[in-house]
Specification:
The complex is a heterodimer of chains A (231) and B (449). Chain A is α/β, with parallel strands linked by helices and 231 residues long. Chain A contains 7 helices and 10 strands. Chain B has 449 residues and is α+β, with helices and mostly antiparallel strands. Chain B has 11 helices and 13 strands. Classes of the chains: A alpha/beta (231), B alpha+beta (449). The structure holds adenosine-5'-triphosphate (ATP) and magnesium ion.
Amino acid sequence: MPEIIKVDKVHKIYRVGETLVHALAGVSMQVARGEFVAITGPSGSGKSTLLNMLAGLEPVTAGEIIIGGQHIESMNENELVRFRRENIGFIFQSYNLIPTMTAEENVAISLMFRGESRSLRLEKARKMLALVGLSDRAQNKPSQMSGGQQQRVGIARALVVNPKIIFADEPTGNLDSKSGAEVIALIKKVVREQKQTVVMVTHDLALAQQADRIIYIKDGRIVKQETTTKD
Amino acid sequence: MRFYELLKFSAQNLWRRKLRTSLTLLGVMIGTASIVVMMSLGIGLNYSYMQQIEQSSTLTLITVNNYGGGYYYGGGYAVMDSSSSSSEESVQLNKDAVERFAQLDHVKCASPIYSFSIIAQSGKYQADLYVNAMSYDMLTALNLPILEGQMPQPGDPLALLAGRQVAYNFYDPKSNSWGWNDSEEPNVDMMENQLFAIYDTNAYYQAQGGETPMPKKYILETAALLGVEDSEYGWSQYDYNVYADLEAVEREFTKVFKKNAWPNQQTDKKGKPITPMTYNQAYVLVDDIDHVTEVQQAINDMGFQASSDLDYLKSMQEQSRIIQYVLAGIGSVSMLVAAIGIANTMLMSIFERTKEIGIFKVLGCSLGNIRAMFLSEAALIGFSGGVLGIGLSFGLSKIINVLLNNISVIPFWLAMLGLGFAVGVGMIAGLSPAIRATRLSPLEAIRTL
Ligand SMILES: Nc1ncnc2c1ncn2[C@@H]1O[C@H](COP(=O)(O)OP(=O)(O)OP(=O)(O)O)[C@@H](O)[C@H]1O
Ligand SMILES: [Mg+2]
């Protein structure tokens, strides 16, 4: 299977005053196109750090990250923004919707940066909201929606641009286990249809079982990888 | 992002913060209005100087004098010296010299001014009149403001063009009183009453002793009365002067004086008149106000003394320019305060929107777009504030003009300048906040609350 993400001996060192924090200590891994990978591990193990570096949100201290054939560790800020715009959808743990905009405007905004016309944008946004089951909340502001609904808007925003890869950092962290499971099922459903690749961070092992493969991280190192058994 | 969407997005962002936006707009509006109104006062001042001078004279008219001391040594002008050698050529303001003025570039018309006194009589009243005779072309070119009557045509017998105030010169020599009070009309109506002129005034004064005969009187017509109808700045020079056609004067004087010297004509030791006649003054009319200085210089280089009201206007304008700078400076201070207001608003808006900017970056909004968003917001504040400020300026200018006699003038270019200035100030004030916004790291930005 051709890999879309290739991580090679990546290190990340944070300097806090005098002390150095080795958040990642030589991580190497690969993700195949269309694969759904879950990253799990204890708190502070470096899961978010790894995901942020894959999305080009944080610079790499050492090592290589190649996504779709492009070295992202050597890109400048402008190139990274373009790279994200063309390849990546990002789902945040804390939703990060724009509070002054309605659900459909929030979804449409990522299309605006691509220069699409307003009518096309809103049409696509409404379709995507229908897909995540929020047709009747299109005109609601984030403050007028539940956490699960806001997260679904966040998912719609990440998916509406039809990205090659979706990164999700604890997308169910703020949800109860039932709506968490619903959100994961939703991601899986949409992604299967579009043959997209998903990398998701979670420390809920039950949810991680929904992925094709689970990567275990501890103290900035990959300690175990396992392919889930499907029934 | 498309430009139009960028503007719309910026406008929406401003609309979301109505109160702060309107306060900032108010600042820009006051700043723009104070600059524009201050400058309009300076411009108004300039306009009124211009009008004042235009009303009382012709700005393209050069007066040439020859004070009798001018000598010409191939380029330089020297003070008369009794031991001057024969290689020096004395400059004479005669018809030849005037002909040379007429040959200069940009000169429309040139004429000598032959000035002389006459004694005019009407019934028991009498007046000493000082007549300025010049060519018919110059008389027409000067565009004399005729109130009553008509310009005499070339070939017509000698007739006067008299200012409407000239009639007040007539007095009764017997009672030696002026015969009129301030409130009264003059005793002579120059257009209606028949005038007689004594041209040989020397003979007239000698005859007062009773030993020599009285010189002959001649019939003299007044062809027109001159004056500026309702001159805003008092009477013009035309109201007091007497003009005549030089050719008509020459024909008349040839008859009157025969071989004798004319009034103000120089004579040699034997008392014979020296020809050609020299004049004290000449007028040179230039085609355009822009060429006056150049022609003036050329005439000065010939050894004459040329002057024009443009010199006076220039010094007035120089003064008003200084006043304009001061006024604009005062206006700029309030614009500076407005600029600080814009910068502050944009900085606040960036602090408030740090998280939003971070999210935009994660979603793939380019740095250029982010910069453009903040810049166009600042420019939009500048533009709207500028438009409101121009509106306010026109209103203020109206009020000032009602209260203070038309002193504020806002030409179109000034309004556009004010608007451009407001937009420019807005963008400069927004520049550093905009750059700051692009520098934020997306992750750190998202983590802020
Ligand atoms: N900006 C930073 N500056 C300094 N140290 C950091 C920074 N971000 C993360 N770290 C450190 O790096 C290590 C890994 O952090 P990371 O956020 O990746 O953990 P995580 O696995 O996502 O934990 P959690 O499950 O709690 O989210 C931690 O020890 C953390 O303290
Ligand atoms: Mg984390």
